[in-house]
Amino acid sequence: MGVIIIIMLVTLESGCLGFVFELESLEAILFPRRNAEADADPGLIQTIFPNLINIEMDAPKALESNYPWIARVTHSSGYNPHVCTASCIHERIFITSASCIFSLKVNLTSVIYSDTIIPALAFVLAENTTKQLFDDIGFIVVKKEYEGDWSTIDIVNQNRSGEGFKWFADWKLPNTSGEYKVVGFATDKTLKENAARVPYHLHELDVIVDINLCSTILSVNGVKGFYTPCYHSCTLEEHQTNKKCDKYHGVEGGAVVDVKAQQLLGVATWSAATRKIILPVGFSVPNSKEFYENYECAMRIKNDETRVVRRPSHYQSLCSD
Ligand SMILES: *[C@@H]1O[C@H](CO)[C@@H](O)[C@H](O)[C@H]1NC(C)=O
Ligand SMILES: *[C@@H]1O[C@H](CO)[C@@H](O)[C@H](O)[C@H]1NC(C)=O
Ligand SMILES: *[C@@H]1O[C@H](CO)[C@@H](O)[C@H](O)[C@H]1NC(C)=O
Ligand SMILES: *[C@@H]1O[C@H](CO)[C@@H](O)[C@H](O)[C@H]1NC(C)=O
């Protein structure tokens, strides 16, 4: 099974995830290093983004009781530092963006769920990552330290047909308002990033989901890319006709929810947006082959009854065929 389980220190060979920039022009964002080989498959221009910076602009506060499956991930046994948002999809199993947990240590990580701080037991990540982890979901299996009922959200129940994202376009999801919301822990964009005690609150935002958002908006000088699932606070038409599209919600692991079906359509993973430029946010749909493999692995770890785990390879061995 193609999974990597991390239960010890992770050294990140990232190159791409660890730095933060704030640039003013879209061109500068999309082509921070001009590279002749613009890689068009699956439509991601040769470009590099930092992690989503967990901010919102004019996104209303949400009640956790309306989203009892939502959780926050912290790199301590308390509320700070906050790192990202996660969703509970099964008892003791949470999903978030892979890029959120790539650089964390398992034994320092907690999931705060239903007002309870639960220590992480293991992370499960895909062995073969997609470019810049755009389409990668990370699993956190937590220890058995929560006694209450587990509220979970169902994940979208349609599989992919084929490579790339044509299947997503073929789904013909409604691209009008009121159908989808993004939910996750965010801070006001004006608060200073990385300040030790910036408060993160649960916010929600009505969003438009459309495969054409990123591929159209993030094109520069005719170079198109990013034919991937994205959401935005306004429609493509509104964006193009300079209507006010000044709301934003972009957090690592943010949950893209199908409001009527009450299903999780996606997990926010990337954006070129900065504190100054509002742009659509890309998400990963939890239905790839790797997703299912890793989910199976997370279940085996959850179900494992070994009392004293002596070797870090123990959990890995549960998932190797
Ligand atoms: C990961 O990539 C390697 C090399 O391309 C390949 O041999 C392997 O089968 C891949 N694993 C999965 C789970 O796709
Ligand atoms: C986490 O693990 C590291 C090494 O594996 C160890 O040195 C450290 O004490 C552990 N920290 C906690 C809080 O358990
Ligand atoms: C999607 O694929 C997974 C893994 O192959 C399978 O377990 C699941 O039942 C499929 N779901 C649907 C709705 O076909
Ligand atoms: C919105 O969806 C409709 C119906 O599927 C489609 O015809 C239209 O092109 C879509 N709009 C955009 C901007 O993609």
UniProtKB/TrEMBL annotation:
The keyword Membrane is assigned to this record: no
A matching Pfam family: Trypsin
Signal peptide: 1-18
Gene3D superfamilies in the cross-refs: Trypsin-like serine proteases (2.40.10.10)
UniProt entry keywords in alphabetical sequence: Signal
Signal recorded as keyword: yes
InterPro entries xref list: Peptidase_S1_PA, Peptidase_S1_PA_chymotrypsin, Trypsin_dom
Domain Peptidase S1 residues, every copy: 65-274
Origin superkingdom: Eukaryota
Annotated protein name in UniProt: Peptidase S1 domain-containing protein
Lineage start: Eukaryota, Metazoa, Ecdysozoa, Arthropoda, Hexapoda
